[in-house]
Each structure stands twice: as structure tokens, then as C-alpha cells.
UniProtKB/TrEMBL annotation:
The lineage of its organism: Bacteria, Pseudomonadati, Pseudomonadota, Alphaproteobacteria, Hyphomicrobiales. GO terms for molecular function: electron transfer activity; formate dehydrogenase (NAD+) activity; formate dehydrogenase (quinone) activity; metal ion binding. Residues 1-29 form the signal peptide. Belongs to the formate dehydrogenase gamma subunit family. This is Formate dehydrogenase gamma subunit. It comes from the Bacteria. Residues 119-297 form the Cytochrome b561 bacterial/Ni-hydrogenase domain. It is a multi-pass membrane protein. It comes from Bradyrhizobium lablabi.
Length: 333
């Protein structure tokens, strides 16, 4: 009988110990055992913000086994971003095609005068083309990250796609530095002429000369060019800062901050590309004589009078009306 009582006391003591341990465990640990094979992934996501174990190596970040915010990031990268980028870029291309077919190139109403006036210096053109070239390569290589696998891989195969993607990554990383320098120089060079003023409001009301046939007055940069300037400065700064955060991981923030940086970087980048398509259109086939400003640095006097009349008046007052250079004669056809 005494031995039976001893067994009873031992059993009760063991049961009390089990209860004590159970009470001291966190509620989440009672409900979910991360090592159990029957635990569902959704249960883990609901019960814990992250699942982290212990590791013996110095990098303690490797102990994170499950980071639910990463699922949201992957959904954004593989689904949402592709929709945003596709709609923005293809939508802009469609609008430009429709606009060109309905409006055509904006021609010089008075024809060419045969005289030119300097619009941009050699240094300004160098900075512009350096930044523009880097931007185009960055855009193509960046779009490859988002759209390359579903669109390009099936066309060229695994080996070619792997080789192309590796070189695209190198170009994307290294050309980010001259691009950033270009954005800073553009900001410093043209900040004085890109402060909004009352003239810009009238320019916008008249459609900037792209709608109808009136050419509203403008200084060196009109409202449309000022918008592009600030998009380049602000958008370029945003993609540069977030891009460097991704290039040098864990120096500024943890994995959550890097995920946010990637969301900002990619979203701003695809919208940036869409806006630059419109800028390229106007500077090439959209407006007669516009490309010459960045091509040769000079524009026809009639072009300056029609599109930037206030700026031309300032130039004439500063240098004199007879300082415009005649264009070289061309051989008759």
C-alpha cells in the first residue's frame, strides 16, 4: 500500500511538472510546432510574424526560416509589378502611336530661316547624352529582370538567356554610377531655368503647341520640359538611392527594408521608362527641329521664336539680333 501511494505521488508530481511547463510556454508555441510535418504553412503565417531559430555561424540572419513579408514581396514582383509596368509602358506606346497618327509631326509654321542660335553648350549635351545612354541601358537591363523570364527566355533558350542576363546585370550595376553623376549635374546645370512660373500655366492651358496650332510663349524651358526635368531629378534620385541599397545589402537596413527598396526602385523605374518614351518621341519624330537642340547644340531661329519666344528675346537682347549664325548651304538635289 505504501508503494502504491508513492507511485501516486510520483504520478501527480510528474503531471504537475507537465502543467507547469505548458503554462510557461508562449501561446504561439503551444498552438504551432514549426518542426511538425503536419503544420500547414498558413498556420505559421497566421501565428508568427517570423520563424527564427538559432545558428552557430556569425551571421545570425541565416537563422530566419520563414519571413511572411517576403511572400507579399514575391507576389508584387511576379504579378503586380508586371501589370503596372506592362500597362504603363505599353499604354504610353499606344498613346504615342495614336497621337502621331492623328496629329503627325509638329512642323515649323514659318519654315526654316536659314539662321541658327545656340541652345545648349557642348558640356550640356555631353551630360545629357551620357545620362540618356546610361538610362537606356539601365532600362533595358532592368526590364529584363521583370519581364525577361516570361517573355525572352522562351524565345532564346536557357543558355543564351543566362549569358545575356549576366552581362545585363553587370551593365546595370556599373552604369548606375555615371547615371547618378549625370542626374546630379543635370540638377545643378538647369535648376535655374526649371522653377515653375506663371508663364507655365498659360503654356499648359494652350496645350503647349502640341494641341492645335498656337505656340504659347516660353522661356528656355517650357512647362513640359520642366516636368521632365523634375521627373529626372526626383525619379533618378529615387532609383539611385534604392538601387545602391540593393547593391550593398544589409549596410543600411535588414531584409524588410531591402524589400521595400526593391518595391520603390522597380515601381519608379517602370513609370520613369514610360515618361521617357514620351520625351524621346517629342525630341525626335514628334517635333520638327527639336532633335537639333541636343544633336548640334543649335536650333533654327524660327524654331526658337515659335517654341521659346521669351527665351529667344532674352538671347537677342543679350547678344544682339545679328549674332545668329547662318546655316551651311546644302547642295541642290
Amino acid at each position: 500500500m505504501a508503494s502504491f501511494g508513492r507511485y501516486v505521488r510520483l504520478a501527480l508530481g510528474a503531471w504537475a511538472f507537465v502543467l507547469l511547463v505548458a503554462v510557461s510556454m508562449p501561446a504561439a508555441a503551444q498552438q504551432v510546432n514549426p518542426t511538425a510535418s503536419s503544420v500547414k504553412e498558413q498556420q505559421l503565417l497566421q501565428e508568427l510574424s517570423r520563424i527564427q531559430g538559432r545558428v552557430s555561424i556569425p551571421d545570425q540572419r541565416s537563422g530566419v526560416l520563414e519571413q511572411p513579408a517576403g511572400r507579399d514581396w514575391r507576389e508584387f514582383r511576379n504579378v503586380t509589378l508586371r501589370w503596372v509596368g506592362g500597362v504603363a509602358i505599353l499604354g504610353m506606346l499606344a498613346l504615342l502611336v495614336v497621337f502621331y497618327l492623328s496629329r503627325g509631326m509638329v512642323r515649323l509654321q514659318g519654315g526654316r530661316s536659314g539662321r541658327t542660335v545656340e541652345r545648349f553648350s557642348a558640356f550640356e549635351r555631353f551630360v545629357h547624352w551620357m545620362t540618356a545612354t546610361c538610362f537606356i541601358i539601365l532600362a533595358v537591363s532592368g526590364l529584363n529582370i521583370t519581364f525577361g523570364r516570361p517573355l525572352l527566355l522562351p524565345l532564346i533558350g536557357f543558355e543564351a538567356f543566362s549569358e545575356w542576363s549576366q552581362w545585363a546585370k553587370y551593365a546595370h550595376n556599373y552604369l548606375s554610377f555615371p547615371f547618378t553623376i549625370g542626374v546630379v549635374l543635370i540638377f545643378l546645370m538647369w535648376i535655374g531655368g526649371n522653377i515653375p512660373n506663371k508663364v507655365d500655366i498659360q503654356w499648359l492651358k494652350q496645350g503647349g503647341g502640341m494641341v492645335g496650332h498656337d505656340h504659347p510663349p516660353a522661356y528656355r524651358f517650357n512647362a513640359g520640359q520642366k516636368a521632365v526635368y523634375w521627373i529626372v531629378v526626383i525619379g533618378g534620385s529615387a532609383v539611385a538611392v534604392t538601387g545602391y541599397q540593393l547593391m550593398f545589402p544589409f549596410y543600411v537596413s535588414g531584409i524588410e527594408g531591402m524589400q521595400l527598396a526593391q518595391v520603390v526602385h522597380s515601381t519608379v523605374a517602370v513609370l520613369f521608362v514610360a515618361v521617357m518614351l514620351a520625351h524621346i518621341y517629342i525630341g525626335t519624330i514628334g517635333m520638327e527641329g527639336a532633335f537639333e537642340a541636343m544633336g548640334t547644340g543649335t536650333v533654327d531661329v524660327n524654331w526658337a521664336k515659335e517654341h521659346h519666344s521669351l527665351w529667344f528675346e532674352e538671347q537677342s537682347a543679350r547678344t544682339g539680333p545679328n549674332d545668329a549664325q547662318p546655316q551651311p548651304a546644302t547642295a541642290a538635289e
